[in-house]
Amino acid sequence: MCRFSESSRQKLGNAVVYIADKAKYPYKTEVLKLLFLMEEQMVLRYHIPLLGIPFNVWRMGPVSVDVYEELSDSPQLLDDFVKLKNTGKGNRVIPIREFCDDEFSDAEINVMESVMKKYGSMTSEQLIAETHREGSLWWNTAKETGLLQDFEDKRASCSNVVLDFGRELCDDAREFYEESLAIRQAANVMRL
User: Are the CB atoms for 189 and 1 separated by under 8 Å?
Assistant: First the structure.
């Protein structure tokens, strides 16, 4: 489980509000995949994390375990940002406040907008297919760790393997990303 500083909690909460508003009350899976795509795009474009939260390799794709748990039952960490509405098909994520961009840079907002423009109207199934495509970060990691075969053979549905967003960056960019991520994680531990 991640520890969140108040600033990081606000940023995560507002990112989920942004997605929930723009995607018109998406299901939990859609929120998870869109957060992942935002994080991935931020790292690829600017070599810094958007949220700096870990995403694990699960059968249904990349999953932030903390966000998954938050959106599975009754939000605690995000209870003043969103509420859940069970539709029988799953939990829809409903924003209960307006999006606040105070914690976001212009570059982060641009990444969020571009991800929502490209992927925001996709269904859960389409987003899963996108994050599972051959050559994707999830696919490469699942294949290298043997999880891809385990998932196909139904021997596993989740794992503790954490995706490394910096793995596809050149050495200098990877080093910059890792330093930025370490600073973000230290701030969370110290609750700055």
Answer: no
